[in-house]
Fold these 4 entries.
Entry 1:
Amino acid sequence: DAKTTQPNSMESNEEEPVHLPCNHSTISGTDYIHWYRQLPSQGPEYVIHGLTSNVNNRMASLAIAEDRKSSTLILHRATLRDAAVYYCILIGDTGNQFYFGTGTSLTVIP
Amino acid sequence: DVKVTQSSRYLVKRTGEKVFLECVQDMDHENMFWYRQDPGLGLRLIYFSYDVKMKEKGDIPEGYSVSREKKERFSLILESASTNQTSMYLCASSSGTSGTIQETQYFGPGTRLLVL
């Protein structure tokens, strides 16, 4: 199964950009890259997803490497509310790649 | 807004009991999922369903079964609860436009199950 690897934790200062990396070297051509985040005592919530091209939405940007073996979630200005665990997952046509792993715990320092 | 609700936030059961965890979504989504979340292991997929009465095993289906009799409801069943099934259980749903499963997943708040 294609899986993802992420750093266990990262820190950022408030109002600075944050780049959260994810490696997915065994990604297949039909796998979408999804990012979710989980605030304390809540279920995960969707952040962004993409297939090949970089994507932007109101929450974040997603930069996908040309070979698709890695991606980076970009929070342009971290706020205290962005402190959460961020998960990078692959979702493919067969449905057998919902691997969330342990994600990256982001701490935002005031 | 999509709403995914789970029948209980906290549940305490005894070893050997049959446990039902219920999940309901109100957005007419085709796909529904059950995960468990444990410290150090992240979220792991137990089962998912892409249509009524259809189910697929995830990574850790052993000790669990599921039921999807209606589109909006997906139940997780622990036939004989064991202490190693103490965990946080999360339900999610997504639309399955054109039979795909790549759509955004919407999660419920979770059920924290303690098996004594």
Note: The mean pLDDT of chain A is 90.
Entry 2:
Amino acid sequence: DAKTTQPNSMESNEEEPVHLPCNHSTISGTDYIHWYRQLPSQGPEYVIHGLTSNVNNRMASLAIAEDRKSSTLILHRATLRDAAVYYCILRSHGGSQGNLIFGKGTKLSVKP
Amino acid sequence: DTAVSQTPKYLVTQMGNDKSIKCEQNLGHDTMYWYKQDSKKFLKIMFSYNNKELIINETVPNRFSPKSPDKAHLNLHINSLELGDSAVYFCASRGLAGGGTQYFGPGTRLLVL
């Protein structure tokens, strides 16, 4: 699986939008972009994923660059509960086991 | 309803002991995983398993062995525990739908003394 690059940490104020960037310049055509997050003392949880088009769900939006070499996870109104480590992961849907290769992620702090 | 559950939540044991961690998923998924998260918070896959194929991360010592009594369970057995085995262990499962989304359990915090 191709590697991703994320900032180590980011800060946000409560109720403001948050844009979490991810660079994946070596992405291949079969790689989907997945985002997971890990709240303190919990297991990772799925946030969103996409291939080429921007995606929206109840948790977040995913904006994918036209060349697919970068993407941005958007939390529209950060809450204190959104403080977590956010992982951007490339996963080839052609892989036999769908393994997720976690990097260091971005630790998001949300200030009240 | 808990989709992926693990027991125990905490496990404290002595070096050299043998222990097991249990994982159950009620999602009807075919593929299950074990991950290890060390003190530096790096999350690494240990095993992936479906009812036909076990794939082992080559860096995992053979003291670790997954055992699956049925499709809904993937237990992790650890022989001759070492201090370096102290970590949080996460179980996860994946179905065929939903773009391969994985669902993680709450984790088992293992401390080897």
Note: Chain A touches chain B through 23 residues (CB under 8 Å).
Entry 3:
Amino acid sequence: QQPVQSPQAVILREGEDAVINCSSSKALYSVHWYRQKHGEAPVFLMILLKGGEQKGHEKISASFNEKKQQSSLYLTASQLSYSGTYFCGTEPLTSGGSNYKLTFGKGTLLTVNP
Amino acid sequence: DGGITQSPKYLFRKEGQNVTLSCEQNLNHDAMYWYRQDPGQGLRLIYYSQIVNDFQKGDIAEGYSVSREKKESFPLTVTSAQKNPTAFYLCASSRRGPALRGEQFFGPGTRLTVL
């Protein structure tokens, strides 16, 4: 079941913050976040496994709520290099994490302008 | 340097022809994946393989076939049965095992255009 990402697109000025959400109707085993720049391959940002978990990667961090149905990606003090499409990939809790298969959302296009 | 290679980068084919996309990795990863990317659709899983000589259908397997005869290689054949084959195809690999869960490494992709 494909997770729902919101917003579909966001435009920022350099230095502004953004939040991207990834929601599922069912509990998840894990959430993975990727960023893809135009014409390039997606690049891994982080993975969240535990309910209530928060993780950081430079000025990009993410959380996984206690019910394990929603994850949010936080981009603070955005830089031009943050531009790209952000995807979340999810594993259902029912998989037990055993089949390593991700279902990706449709993506959020982030544009950072000077 | 370790990584994933896909070839060719651009591929043109006539309608009705089968075409095979190459994917090779030297990361010693057990699991490999094929995704299709269309504008506004995200990444949709075509096939995946967790181990040599084994593979499973993903969400949009119709019109595609794969093989996994070697750990390093996971070629994808787009058959004439695929109704709308023009797309960007991405191959990925990852480590396998409960204690090793981690990222999927993606290749640079092949853009297939069927005329």
Note: The interface with chain A takes residues 31, 33, 35, 40-45, 48, 50, 56, 58-59, 90, 94, 96, 98, 101-109 of chain B (CB under 8 Å).
Entry 4:
Amino acid sequence: EDQVTQSPEALRLQEGESSSLNCSYTVSGLRGLFWYRQDPGKGPEFLFTLYSAGEEKEKERLKATLTKKESFLHITAPKPEDSATYLCAVQGSSWGKLQFGAGTQVVVTP
Amino acid sequence: EAGVTQSPTHLIKTRGQQATLRCSPISGHTSVYWYQQALGLGLQFLLWYDEGEERNRGNFPPRFSGRQFPNYSSELNVNALELEDSALYLCASSRNTGTGGLQYFGPGTRLTVT
């Protein structure tokens, strides 16, 4: 069965303090790895899709990378509005199903 | 472009009752997915519908069921509600690539069972 583990569970950053979130996965036949952002009480907002090892994608202060066993979400010079829970998910052998990790809750203080 | 919409926003039911949740996908999307997000747990896959057919199902009992209408909107029905069914129910939609596509989520329906 596909598994996704995210670390750390929570991360508290000062504004401007860069950091990285980790997503480790085991999957039979990776069809895609997805990063979402979720604000409290709201639905996840799509950030990135990665399909093959070595792939990288960037959006504003966020950069996602992928290896054969894990993905990293790098947050560069974060701002308070980057505070959210960041979710990692994989699509593998079970078609249509996204297997989610538990998420990393990020708090950025001014 | 309008996103995925869900109704109602909040739903309060009593144990043993039935709940019906609704979802309208993004225009042009034929696939609809349902997920449960219970407090302290991650998103758990419930169901995938495409072109009116159930394509895949997660590890949930049969009292969780749904359907997809010709206009691609969808309903999730939960029968014989239990306290542990209290959760945020999220709907997502995608264009279908055969194995499921990039999923965009709606705002969710908060179901509370008392």
Note: The two ends of chain B are 37 Å apart (CA to CA).
